[in-house]
Design goal:
The chain crosses the membrane at residues 6-22, 34-52, 58-77, 89-111, 123-143, 155-177, 183-202, 209-229, 235-255. With 460 residues, this protein is of the alpha/beta class. It is 59% helix and 7% strand. It has helices spanning 5-24, 28-52, 58-78, 84-113, 118-145, 159-176, 183-201, 209-231, 234-258, 262-267, 291-299, 310-315, 318-330, 349-356, 367-370, 392-395, 446-458; strands at residues 303-308, 334-339, 364-366, 379-383, 414-419, 439-443. Helix 1 packs antiparallel against helix 2. It is globular, with a radius of gyration of 25 Å. The N and C termini lie far apart (76 Å).
């Protein structure tokens, strides 16, 4: 069936919406607007399909759409800010799985129609393979981030042989599906893709997991693009390509921010090079203080830099932190927030969290912009962050985060860490900055501690 001209124009508008949305998401100021524009494009595309195509089984499709909408809306409203990476992993996996299922259905149809073309079969095979890898890998990343399984790398004896065998078998089945097109071979390829997706993510642990989510997101985009070719839907082709390209660029940027190659992120644990996750609390002596002591440091400082991290999100202390910063600003102190590219667990995580507390965008400084200012800073207040200020990334070649660019908090005159305990960060290694003579630790829940700190500063 030929797509009507009005529908082609509608698809064009939707594609433009997706491109404008990606542009908007590149800036905290425009991210909300970009998100809304992208959602509007998706709604327009879905509505166009219903009116432009002859749809069989309309009732079950509408029921499935309604059920999916309810699940998605409830999930989005209930998810905590700290669980956003898990939500992204789940949504990403669902997209890959859906593309693979559609490809299997189309495979059955084109076999029944007779004389399928090799390019069409190659696109179908590619969609099944990449879609199932993305689905299985995303489910494992969700389980790791949600701590339903260990977040540490999982490697077993013979893993390299098992992974190699799964990779070769999957590629062989994908290639064989073109000349020997049968539904059973397609199902075998899907099962092999699921196994390969699990084996791909198992050795990844600690701070590397969010990077793999981004990689799998790129996989899903490519699978959707290939399914667009199979379904002869240009909009799917365009949207999938945009997601694939954006996911690939984000993966490269995150890997660069961690100072690691993608190969090292995926397979570094096989030779001890992965970030580990977990870890044991240190019992080395540190200098600690109470809220009143730290309030004096902050109250009489001329320059303060805040380094927010995942712990801030866990404690939901962003609003109290914003109140503390406002009081310091009223006292004439210059205060900025230093944002590491992978602060939290994903790029933009801290920006969204602080935007929720109405922190002005002008106070958020990227790493390259803020790093030269640490030497002139009186106090750095580290709230729930750890690995992004760990000097081991620059000084210890054996450290798993060696090479990762860090916020140079160690160059400031005084550093105050707000921590619950002496447990290491997501990378699972000790932070030597905690034991420096210029460092003070303020133990406790970040929200409760910041409230006491706020009261103490007001009392000065």
């Amino acid at each position: 069936m030929t797509t009507p001209v009005w529908a082609q124009l509608s698809y064009l508008v939707a594609a433009v919406c997706f491109i404008v949305a990606l542009k908007g998401l590149s800036s905290p100021k425009a991210a909300r607007r970009g998100n809304l524009i992208g959602a509007a494009g998706a709604v327009l595309a879905c509505v166009t399909v219903f009116f432009a195509a002859e749809i069989d089984h309309l009732l079950p499709i509408l029921v499935a759409v309604a059920v999916g909408t309810v699940i998605g809306a409830v999930g989005a409203y209930r998810v905590q800010m700290t669980q956003m990476p898990q939500l992204v992993a789940l949504f990403n996996g669902v997209g890959g799985g859906a593309a693979a299922i559609v490809a299997l259905v189309e495979l059955n149809k084109i076999i029944a129609a007779g004389s399928p073309g090799p390019v069409e079969l190659a696109a179908t095979s590619f969609t099944i393979m990449i879609g199932t890898i993305s689905f299985a890998g995303s489910v494992v990343t969700f389980l790791k981030l949600q701590e339903l399984m260990t977040s540490r790398p999982v490697v077993f004896p013979g893993y390299p042989l098992a992974y190699g065998a799964a990779l070769l078998a999957t590629l062989a089945a994908a290639v064989l599906l073109v000349p020997v097109a049968t539904l059973w071979l397609g199902i075998v390829l899907a099962v092999l893709g699921l196994v390969l997706g699990v084996l791909l993510v198992l050795p990844v642990g600690g701070a590397d997991v969010p990077i793999v989510i981004s990689l799998l997101n790129a996989f899903t985009g490519l699978a959707v693009a290939a399914s667009g070719y199979v379904l002869q839907n240009v909009l799917l082709l365009v949207a999938g390509t945009l997601v694939g390209a954006a996911g690939t660029l984000l993966t490269r940027l995150m890997a660069a921010a961690m100072g690691r190659s993608l190969f090292n992120i995926l397979f570094g644990s096989l030779r001890g090079g992965s970030t580990l996750g977990g870890g044991v609390a240190s019992d080395r002596p540190v200098r600690s203080a109470g809220p009143a002591d730290v309030a004096i440091l902050l109250g009489y400082a001329e320059r303060v830099i805040i380094v927010p991290g995942y712990g801030l999100a866990v404690a939901q202390a962003q609003h109290t932190l914003k109140q503390l910063v406002d009081v310091l600003l009223e006292r004439g102190t210059k205060v900025d927030y230093a944002i590491h590219p992978v602060a939290g667990r994903m790029p933009g995580h801290m920006n969204v969290l602080l935007a929720e507390a109405q922190v002005p965008y002008e106070q958020l400084k990227e790493m390259d912009e803020i790093n030269p200012e640490f030497k002139q800073t009186d106090v750095v207040l580290v709230v729930g962050a750890n690995d992004v200020v760990n000097p081991a990334a620059e000084t210890t070649p054996s450290a798993p985060i060696y090479g990762m660019p860090i916020l140079k908090a160690n160059e400031a005159k005084q550093v105050v860490f707000l921590k619950r305990s002496m447990r290491p960060g997501f990378a699972g290694i000790e932070n030597e900055l905690l034991f420096e003579p210029t460092t003070t630790l303020l133990f406790g829940d970040a929200k409760d501690t910041l409230a006491k700190l706020l009261a103490a500063v007001k009392a000065l």
